[in-house]
Each structure stands twice: as structure tokens, then as C-alpha cells.
Amino acid sequence: EVPRGSRQKEENIRCLTMLGHFGFECLPHQLVNKSIQQGFSFNILCVGETGLGKSTLIDTLFNTNSREKKSSHFRPNVELKIQTYQLQESNVQLKLTVVTTVGYGDQMNKEARDILHKGVGKGVAMVNIIPLIAKADTISKNDLQTFKSKIMNELISNGIQIYQFPTDDKTTAQVNSSMNEHLPFAVVGCMDEVKVGKRMVRGRLYPWGVLQVENENHCDFVKLRDMLLCTNTEHLKEVTHTKHYECYRRCRLQKIGFTDVGPDNQPLSFQEIYETKRKEFHEQCQREEEELKHKFMQRVMEKEIAFKEAEKEASISSLI
Ligand code: GDP
């Protein structure tokens, strides 16, 4: 039997119902919730000659409709066409910005070369480069393998570093290393739906059959989509931010005199560089101010002498 006093105590105890997770195991959930609330963003720059199939490919990837505004194939210069889409898949929002080159290859002119150099500066990639072969339905299987090796050899011999799918994460290492072997991806873009058996599929209808965009035996479209939008999206963004942007920022700062090592090859802190620059600027201002003062005083003296001369002449002429 339970003594009376202790039963009363038990009745006073407040029972708390558990909310599932507690403690720091909740941290990942907080991050997931925050990311979902903020939404994600992803930027793609699609470079290639006019008519190569860029807009069609982007539309096929994201189910968008950018080809409505068709671009002329005879442009005098190269422009960047920027399109932003707000996409949603279940409760995940994605702000997609697609930049395509318009007029590239119409005339191999200065702007075209500039755009190429912005992406690849002396072999140092400033963006993640994923090489593609467009309109892969127009090349035979054997020729495609030769073409792929030729492109890879040219990239290597020109010292152009392309993006490598990461192999340091156990969960994706195998698929990523196999995908690295498939580069450049040979893709086909198409918004048309064709009947194959009982199903409607995205594909190009030819007199001899249908090229199914999402059939891995027909082209590498699914590989590209998985790598870009499923397996490595976050890694692509991370590399852009920590490697390419950092490299760009450092180059720009170096151009205006901010280096991160001193004359003795010792690393300098940003604060130190800032203080040195501030001192240099202050001293330059003082020098210029002194120079101005000096010039001003000289002009004043010259004027005074001229006045005195004029005064003298005036008094002489009044005496006469
Ligand atoms: P962009 O100028 O690079 O944006 O090229 P478009 O996307 O406007 O495509 C130019 C033409 O190529 C259009 O007639 C498309 O239907 C066609 N096209 C696009 N992708 C493919 C493809 O994968 N295979 C084939 N055979 N034609 C394609």
C-alpha cells in the first residue's frame, strides 16, 4: 500500500508530454527548416554557339519555356540573356537564374572571346565547367566515343580544368567517379512528347524511331540532370563560393594593391593591409595639400610683387 502523503505528492507532479526530438539532435532539423523557409538559389551559365540547342536543353531540364523569345542567329555582338524562374517542387522553392550567351559564334569577335575568358582565365576556371556535347542524336555511337576523347584531350592540352564530381563522400563516391568517366555528357534537348508503347515520353521522332531524352541508352541527359540537380547541387555551389569566387576576389584585391603576404613573405592580416593603405593614403593627401599650399603661396607672392610694381609705376607717373 502507498502511504497517503506520497500519493498526494504524486498527484501534484506535472506530466510533460515529449515533443519527439530534444537536445542538440534537433540542430539538423533547424537547418533544414531554415533552408526551406529561405529557399534555394542556383545559377547556370550556358555557353555555346547560337542554334546549338542551349535554350531547348534548359527548357527540357527545368520544364520552362525560354524558347518563346527566339534569338536571331545574325547578331553583330554577343549578349548575355538572363532569365530567372521561381520553381517549386513539393515545399522546396528554387530560384533558378539561367544566363545564356546570345550571338556567340555568329561572329568570333572580341566580346565572344571576353565571355570565354571570363569563364576560363588562362586555364584557371572561374566557374565550374561541365562540358557537354549538344544534339547528341546527330552523331553515331562510335563517333561519339572518339569525339568525347578528342574533347577531353583538347581540354587537357589547353590546361582547362573542368569540374570533377567529388569522390570524397562515401555515399556518392561510386556514382560520381563513374560520371567523371562519362564527361563530356552527350545530351539531347526536346520539349515534344511522343508515344512509345503505351507511354508518352519526351523524345525526338525520326523516320527510323524515337530518341528518348530520358533513356540512358539513348543519351546522357538523365546523367546530367542527376549530377546537376540531385547529387551535386550543393557541392557545385560550395565550390563556386569557396574556390572560384574566393580566387576572383583575391585577384581583384591584388589589382588594387591588397596582397595577403608582406615583403618578408609573412602573411598579412586584412587589418594590417587596411592600416598600411590608410596611412599611405593619408600621407599622399598631406603631400598634395602641402604642394597646393606652396603653389598658392607662390601665386600670392607673385601677385603681391606685381601689385607693388604697378603701384610704383602709378606713383611715378603721377609725379611726372
Ligand atoms: P540556342 O540558340 O543554342 O538556344 O538553340 P535552340 O535551343 O534555339 O535550338 C536551335 C534548334 O536546334 C531548334 O530548331 C531546336 O529544335 C534544335 N535542337 C535543340 N536541341 C536539339 C537536339 O538535342 N537535337 C536536335 N537534333 N536538334 C535540337
From TrEMBL:
It is found in: Cytoplasm, Cytoskeleton. Keywords: Cytoplasm, Cytoskeleton, GTP-binding, Nucleotide-binding. The keyword Nucleotide-binding applies. Gene3D superfamilies: P-loop containing nucleotide triphosphate hydrolases (3.40.50.300). GO terms for molecular function: GTP binding. GO terms for cellular component: cytoskeleton. Pfam families: Septin. Belongs to the TRAFAC class TrmE-Era-EngA-EngB-Septin-like GTPase superfamily. Septin GTPase family. This is Septin-type G domain-containing protein. It comes from Cnephaeus nilssonii. The lineage of its organism: Eukaryota, Metazoa, Chordata, Craniata, Vertebrata.
